[in-house]
Design brief:
6 helices, 353 residues, alpha+beta
Amino acid sequence: MPDKLPQQSGLSTINNNGTDYRVLNAPLFPDKPDSPQLTLLLDITHHQHFLQRMQHLIWLTVGLSALATALLGAWAARSGLRPLRRMSAVARGVSAQSLNARLPEEHMPPELAEMAHHFNAMLGRLDDSFQRLSAFSADIAHELRTPLSNLLMHTQVTLTRPRPLEDYREALHSNLEELQWMAQLVNDMLYLAKSDHGLLVPKRKTLDLAVETDLLLEFFAPLAEDAQVKLSREGDARIEGDRSMLRRALSNLLDNALRFTPIAGEVRVRIIEQPNALRLTVENTGEPISEDLLPRLFDRFYRADPARREGSSEHAGLGLAITQSIIRAHGGQIHCESDNGWTRFVIELPKKD
């Protein structure tokens, strides 16, 4: 029994010698001022201890839950970021010598699969461009080595002993031919470099393709006559384009066709006007080109199989690459077909509304 009880009416809580009590004071006769007080006491120590234990348990549960949530969150974040770390490792290892690295797309989550696909495609484009650039550099060195060697050897031989003036004149003429070929090669490479950087801007004007083609056929007529090759043109159309650029492209195609057309063969230019495009073909009879070689015909310095190679250094293998750059500058496309005894270069140019 507590030593001291509260006197006020109502509920209250007291502690006596480590024991908690819940106390209720109420008058027995509320309508009498001098009514005696009724006091009820309930030992709530056990309940207090239970509540304290529950409170400690709740705090422990909350703490452990927070820790578990943090650990699970860290694990989930680490697992979720593993593909990104893998991508970072691949990107960190990419160099000029290791452009063939790729991300494993099959192990990527759906959210990152598309990005991994585009990342691999980017690496593929870089690898292809670098391989082409490396091959281009090697081809340049190879193409320039021969005329430079000829110049050096010819000059050294000429200077080994005194010679008549006519011999020196002949040596200079021979050197001039090699230098002119080298100058043309450098100009062609600069032209392609401008194309790569989007600096080829056609000066568009209305052109009659039949007239332009006939002028070129007239220019090549003596060469075709010597080779007993028939030249012809079919069709007519008008187009907006750069006269000098399109003439150069057609001239390259006609020169290429004449070089690979056998005696008594035929070179034909066909102009076909379509609703939304113009189709121009330069085709010649002769040995067909293997299908696996067709896509590479427009590569720089590329020559087809030995049977179709030009033996002299007059043609460096840049003509078709220049032609492709000119057609693309006009918004068109060019490809090659070879079947049934005909090799056909097909140009498709968009028509202006």
